[in-house]
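Quick board copy: two proteins, each given as sequence then tokens.
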Amino acid sequence: EYISMDAVGNQFKITAKNGETNARNYNKIFLIDVNAHIFLENSESILIAGDFANYDKSTIETFFKDNVKINYLNHKVESEKLYLSFEDKLAKINDNVVYKNEDTKMYADNIEIDFKTKNTKISMNNNEKVLIKSTY
């Protein structure tokens, strides 16, 4: 279990069933069956799970892969990859992205979230259109 906190007061807690350090850099850890919890100051917490992750203890940079699931309030996102950087205040979600909430389901290739500005970019590869299904 690793817990990190940044200067603003955000907290990141990551746990895994198994972990393996890099022989050349002990800050880099390969994790198996990973769960992470992000506590953003003045916001609800975010839960992340994935089959694998590459985690850097010194930068808190984390690359989740395979069967990634993100839960935030009533928002759920599934994908194959999630790159998370607290240093850059950025999250990139890629590959078979499915977003769901109570009345919307969206399919995309990429979601990029800027934590600083709260801006979100949703896109497809090859100029395809994002598919959104809503029920009312």
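And the next:
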Amino acid sequence: MNILALSGSARRASTNTALLRNLADVAPEGVDITVFDRIAELPVFSPDLEHPRPASVAAFADLIAHADGLILCVPEYARALPGGLKNALDWLVSGEELIAKPVALAHASHRGDDMLADLRRVLTTVTSAFQPDIFLRLPLMGQTPEEIAALFEQPDTRHKTRAFLKAFAKTLPPKSQT
């Protein structure tokens, strides 16, 4: 199973990206997770640029098209979606890559419920396969990537993350389940 894990943060030392990288490291056998942490490289969306798409957008859309499922991990900025993530999703609205793609959420904070509500509303609009009940929340704010890696070595965290991945795997098309 091939999962694309999309970090909604443009920050180099992002807690969200660290969560996704560690999730990839503890994924069970047969679950391959690729982390995409380059939303800041996508140009600002404009319908005038959709045909043909800029090369960075085409490569991003291709990653999503070839993934069996998508996990998003997104920070909250001023109680809302970060602009870079919304921009990335806007690039996909008129394409077919996301329409029936299974999507689940992970969250690296104990707060951010307003942003999560907005993100859930957007995802239910752009994909028919959003999985609102499959959700991983780990309160990681203020932790370094090294501290996050140590947390993922703990049995409770490993169990919680693998249960999340197994639940998500059950939503993927039969041909991609392992």
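Board note added afterward: The beta strands are 2-7, 32-36, 69-73, 103-107, 130-137.
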